[in-house]
Design goal:
Number of helices: 5
Structural class: mainly alpha
Shape: elongated
Number of strands: 0
Strand content: under 5%
Radius of gyration: 16 Å
Largest sheet: none
């Protein structure tokens, strides 16, 4: 049960922190205050840093089978972020599903990409 809460907590942070940072780029009427390119670039960097930090903490508990766990962790975080977006962000931003996946959802594939890369790195370079 403790591991599930840990995963849910860290997974929630991968969604929450970029979500909160994004508010700094919008005015009170919901208009973007900077260029869309700058906003997207900052969001990718923020989510990559948060994702890397979360992966570090989640992989600390992995004892071998790094590649297998990298797929499991990556799929879990990807699914959780998509679910949170579909439940909270999509209705809040009044987006349709296709526009969401085209403009935001596809970027979440960076999570399993980072996770699997870390899994292979640990497999070949981890010294117990």
């Amino acid at each position: 049960m403790k591991i599930i809460l840990k995963w849910l907590g860290f997974g929630f942070l991968t969604w929450l922190i970029p979500f909160l940072v994004s508010f700094g780029f919008y005015d009170r009427s919901g208009n973007l205050t900077t260029s869309e390119d700058l906003f997207k670039s900052v969001m990718i960097v923020v989510s990559s840093v948060v994702g890397g930090w979360v992966l570090y903490h989640l992989f600390k508990g992995v004892k071998g089978s790094f590649v297998k766990w990298s797929w499991i962790i990556g799929a879990f975080l990807l699914s959780l972020n998509w679910i949170l977006d579909l439940v909270i962000l999509v209705p809040f931003a009044k987006m349709d599903g296709w526009f969401y996946f085209e403009s935001i959802g596809i970027r979440y594939l960076q999570i399993p990409a980072l996770s699997v890369t870390l899994g292979f790195t640990l497999k070949y370079f981890h010294k117990p």
